[in-house]
Specification:
There is one protein chain. The chain contains three helices and seven strands; from the N terminus they run αββββαβαββ. It is of the alpha/beta class. It has a domain of 84 residues: 2-Layer Sandwich (Nucleotidyltransferase, domain 5). The protein has a five-stranded mixed sheet with strand order 4-3-2-5-6, covered by helices on one side. It has a two-stranded parallel sheet with strand order 1-7. A hairpin with a 5-residue loop joins strand 2 and strand 3. The longest helix has 21 residues. The radius of gyration is 28 Å and the shape is elongated. The termini are far apart. About 7% of the residues have low confidence.
C-alpha cells in the first residue's frame, strides 16, 4: 500500500529572501566604508612628488595664510574673487586655474575657491612643492 505525505517540503528557492540579505549587506558595507574614511593622521601639506607637472594654466589664484587672495599676483578682495576669476576664464575652451595656497592657509579659504570652480564648472589644479628626499 502506497502512503502519500501531505506536507512535502517545497524545494523552490525564494529569491525575495536573498534580495533582502543582499540589500542589508550593501547597507552595512556602505555605512562602514563611510566611517573608515575618517583620518586621524597629521599631515603637512602641500608637498608632492611630481617633478614636472604638465599644467598649462594661465590663471593662478594664490591664498596667503591670513586669508588674502591674489589672482595672477593682483590682490583681490574675497567678495570680487569669483567675478575676477570668471573674467579671466571667458573665451577659454577648457577653463582651468591653479590654486596656490600656503601650507598654513585655512582650509575654508581653499574650499571657498574650490566652490567657485565647482559652481562655474572650471577645472582646478592644486600647486604643491616637491618633497625633499
Amino acid at each position: 500500500m502506497k502512503i502519500k505525505r501531505r506536507n512535502k517540503a517545497n524545494p523552490d528557492f525564494s529569491l525575495a529572501a536573498m534580495v533582502d540579505v543582499i540589500l542589508l549587506l550593501l547597507i552595512f558595507f556602505m555605512v562602514t566604508s563611510a566611517a573608515s574614511n575618517i583620518s586621524a593622521v597629521n599631515v603637512n601639506l602641500p608637498k608632492g612628488t611630481v617633478d614636472n607637472p604638465n599644467i598649462p594654466d594661465e590663471v593662478v589664484v594664490s591664498i596667503q595664510p591670513d586669508g588674502r587672495f591674489y589672482v595672477n599676483d593682483v590682490p583681490t578682495p574675497k567678495e570680487s574673487l569669483e567675478s575676477s576669476i570668471f573674467q579671466k576664464m571667458q573665451g577659454k575652451k577648457n577653463p582651468s586655474f591653479t590654486i596656490r595656497a600656503d601650507e598654513n592657509t585655512l582650509h575654508k579659504d581653499v574650499v571657498f575657491v574650490m566652490e567657485i570652480a565647482e559652481k562655474n564648472h572650471f577645472n582646478i589644479a592644486i600647486a604643491t612643492t616637491k618633497e625633499p628626499k
